[in-house]
Amino acid sequence: MADYQAPLREMRFVLNEVFDAPALWASLPGVAGNVDPDTADAILEEAGKITAGVLAPLNREADEQGCRWNDGDVTTPEGFKEAYQTLVEGGWNGLGGNPEFGGMGMPKTLVAQFEEMMQAANMSFGLAPMLTAGACVALDAHGSPELKEKYLPKLYSGEWSGAMDLTEPHAGTDLGIIRTKAEPQDDGSYRITGTKIFITWGEHDMAENIVHLVLAKLPDAPKGPKGISMFLVPKFLVNDDGSLGERNQFGCGSLEKKMGIKASATCVMNYDGATGWLVGEENKGLAAMFTMMNYERLGVGIQGLGAAEASLQSAREYANERIQSRAPTGARQPDKAADPILVHPDVRRMLMTMKSFVEGGRAFSTYVASWLDIAKFSEDDQQREHADGMVALLTPVAKAFLTDRGLDTTILGQQVFGGHGFIREWGQEQLVRDCRITQIYEGTNGIQAMDLMGRKVVGSEGKLFELFAEDVTNFIEQNSMDAALRPYLESLAAALERLSDVTELVIKQAGENPEAVGAAAVDYLDMFGYTALAYMWAKMVKAAAEKAGNDTSGFYTGKIKTARFYYDRLLPRTVALAEGIRSGEGAMMAPDASEI
Ligand SMILES: Cc1cc2nc3c(=O)[nH]c(=O)nc-3n(C[C@H](O)[C@H](O)[C@H](O)COP(=O)(O)OP(=O)(O)OC[C@H]3O[C@@H](n4cnc5c(N)ncnc54)[C@H](O)[C@@H]3O)c2cc1C
Fold it and tell me: In which band, very low, low, confident or very high, does the pLDDT at 550 lie, cut at 50, 70 and 90?
């Protein structure tokens, strides 16, 4: 397994050359004072050192050790506490946080690069800062001034960590049927009772307090999703002076044994009349939780991307070193017993597919992050509304497409290693196992696809889709005279037209048939993702073309050749996906239960 190195050159390319992030930051008053190109670069550099030097070396052994449960306490694998402390000392937990409460106020475009490094280096560990950041977003957006004052500074500093408690044994996707109860108390607090399962980092020994955001129902709550409220429930109650008080009435009943991310604690949490405080309004908890979920969803997409990057780094190195058989065109290294496997077209197929998804995926996550920045920091109402629409549309694509392609990529990386890919010490099988959960949690990828197709595309009668289509069309029109880009733009325009046609068809079918959306959704999200990555690759060709002539490093010429591979070998998948969608729901709904 290659030692993970943060892909700083790649990240700088995407940030500075493809998206001109410094110009974006300078145009957003809310962020302009917090970051400039030198600061951003120093953050990337330092993040690279910490993730490669501190987190990555723990990853393999921590997977073997896992977390240990003992009478409600959870002990993390060796080195995790110290690594967590390194993050606390560097203020990394508050990188994107609100400066009013001690956060650093960095733009998401930059924070996303740090997140990728952390998830690539050590996904189990990376979940802890990720959940804390998500909890902070929800609290900052919906908490009362008192709650924010009391909790946000310690969460941003990392002294305390965050967890989110939605899932119950009988309620995962359908949170409307949760049973956890919240009873109002005379002092304005609530007594929380119930059981939550699968709570990531719900208990551990890295931070001195753990702040849970718990979904529960008030006694008179309406049935279903409209009767859910969100509560802040700390492990230790916090005194008025900010010091820690008594232990709250809840604890970790056990840890799950699982397929991957074994070094993270997945906890059963039992609430036994615990004291909590309402966050946001009564019965509006699901909407409040969605603020956190949307943030997390891009973060989970980035987890898929990170695993894919780590897999690519190792597979690329291995393919250059491992020698087997001769190249089909004759020996390339006659002095050796065989040629490196990189000479074989099928190994090239795997590596180029991996590189296409990883670099296209990084551009896409940065693109989505740039809309998040505009939505959060722009002072222009119209621009903000436009960005909100893009974020709503693109978030499910980022979550599901990046994790689906993330798993594809890690499996390809494992395949490049042959039998060694199946053996633990090489690390590729861990990446496959770790990446698998990203397709399931934070709303399964099937549910993301329903969200995209049902709520976003059909729900807006195609208006949100038009925002994206317009963005791509503008790019095509603005660059129509660019000779280097022309061959890509024709295929991109055709892919967009294909996607637009299918969008129109499903919107029409949805009005006539309630099963149409569910039947089309996953293939539609895939088509959307492949088209979006084609757009990203066209943007990367534009940024690379001018510099490719003098490029002896292979960086820019490599970008253009990878774009060609993507357009020739991967984008055509949208043709087959469109065919499948057009066939409708008949074939999947026809069988009786006994026929499946
Ligand atoms: C390791 C791990 C960590 C986790 N961390 C957390 C955490 O920190 N906090 C937390 O609250 N939860 C957490 N979860 C829970 C996770 O978010 C849920 O498992 C996930 O949302 C799916 O819910 P479920 O398991 O109940 O599956 P179900 O909801 O039972 O779904 C089963 C299948 O049916 C499909 N399905 C369900 N409803 C529909 C529908 N309406 N239309 C189409 N298909 C449908 C699903 O897509 C899925 O394929 C974690 C889970 C794991 C395994």
Answer: confident
170 Cα: distance to centroid of ligand 1 (angstroms)? 10
What is the rounded distance in angstroms from the CA atom of residue 592 to the CA atom of residue 596? 7
Whether 442 is catalytic: yes
Q: How far apart (Å, rounded) are the C-alpha atoms in residues 307 and 392?
A: 25
| Cα 389-392-396 angle, rounded to 5 deg | 150
Which pLDDT score is estimated for 356? Answer: 98
Do 246 and 176 contact (CB within 8 A), yes or no? no
Model-level pTM greater than 0.85? Answer: yes
| Nearest Cα residue to 203 out of 247, 163, 245 | 163
Amino acid 595 reads E
Rounded to an integer, what distance in angstroms lies between the CA atom of residue 325 and that of residue 342?
11
Report the pocket of ligand 1 as residue ranges, CB < 6 Å.
164-167, 172-173, 198-200, 258, 266, 437, 440-444, 446-447, 450, 518
Active-site hit among 82, 442, 512, 579: 442
Number of C-beta neighbours around residue 585 at 10 A:
17
> What is the residue with the minimal CA distance to atom 21 of ligand 1?
443
207 and 159 in contact (C-beta within 8 Å)? yes
Nearest-CA neighbor of 211 among 285, 259, 158? Answer: 158
Residue 355: helix, strand or coil by DSSP?
A: helix
Of residues 303 and 295, more confidently modeled: 303
Query: What digits encode the pLDDT tens for the residues 511-535?
Result: 889 899 999 999 999 999 999 999 9
